[in-house]
Design a protein that fits this description.
It contains 5 helices and 5 strands; from the N terminus they run ααββββαβαα. The chain has about 120 residues and is an alpha+beta fold.
């Protein structure tokens, strides 16, 4: 099965076109080799995927016949425990960074946006 189709079937990407773009962009490797959208996935292959700055390390257990429900899609792969812990740690760091950003009451107006930019170190 093509890797872009497998990523779409397993619900890592919303459309097959987005899956193809991710693969073509170098965000997917199969057995430590950079994949092309037409690369084939077979059972037992190790797939490393970067999506939204988060890394997934997966092993293909089966090749799904269709894009079914999420519970069915999860049966098609197993994820490495180390990968899960790394991703959770990265998410915690992202959340901590967001908590340190300056806050405003409601949507900032033009003046407040400029103040926020100067405080965060980004000048126009």
């Amino acid at each position: 099965m093509r890797v872009d189709k497998w990523l779409w079937f397993t619900r890592f990407h919303k459309t097959r076109a987005l899956a193809g773009k991710a693969v073509a962009g170098g965000h997917v490797s199969i057995n430590s080799v950079r994949a092309k959208p037409s690369s084939h996935v077979s059972t037992g292959d190790t797939i490393e995927l970067v999506r939204d700055q988060l890394t997934f390390s997966l092993q293909a257990r089966e090749l799904p016949d269709r894009r079914g429900p999420a519970a069915e899609a999860r049966l098609a792969y197993t994820e490495d425990e180390e990968s899960v812990l790394r991703r959770e740690k990265m998410l915690a760091n992202i959340r901590a960074d967001r908590r340190q950003m300056p806050r405003t009451a409601g949507k900032p107006d033009k003046h407040t946006r400029r103040l926020l930019r100067t405080r965060s170190g980004k000048a126009d």
